[in-house]
Amino acid sequence: MRTIQVYNTLTRKKEVFKPIEDGKVGIYVCGVTPYNDPHIGNARPFVTWDTIRRFFAKCGYEVHYIQNFTDVDDKIIRVSHEQGKTWKEVADHNIDVYFQSMDALNVRRADVYPRVSDTIPEIIEMVQGLVDKGYAYVVDGDVFYSVEKFKGYGKLSGRSLDDMMAGARVEVDERKQNPMDFAVWKSAKPGEPFWESPWGNGRPGWHIECSAMSLKYLGRTFDFHGGGSDLIFPHHENEIAQSQAFCGSEDCFAHYWVHNGFITIHEEKMSKSLGNFFTVADILKKYPGEVLRFFILQTHYRSPLDFSDERLKDAQAGLMRLENARRNAEELSAKDGAADTAKALAEAALSAKESFYTAMADDFNTALAVSYLFAVAKDINVYYNEVVNQGTAFDKENFGKAKDAFYDMAEIIGIFEAKAEEKSDEDAEIDALVEERLAARKEKNWARADEIRDLLKARGIVLKDTAEGTRWERA
RNA sequence: GGCGACAUAGCCAAGUGGUAAGGCCGAGGUCUGCAAAACCUUUAUCCCCAGUUCGACUCUGGGUGUCGCCUCCA
Question: Which residue ranges does the UniProt annotation give for the motif 'HIGH' region (predicted)?
Answer without folding.
Answer: 32-42
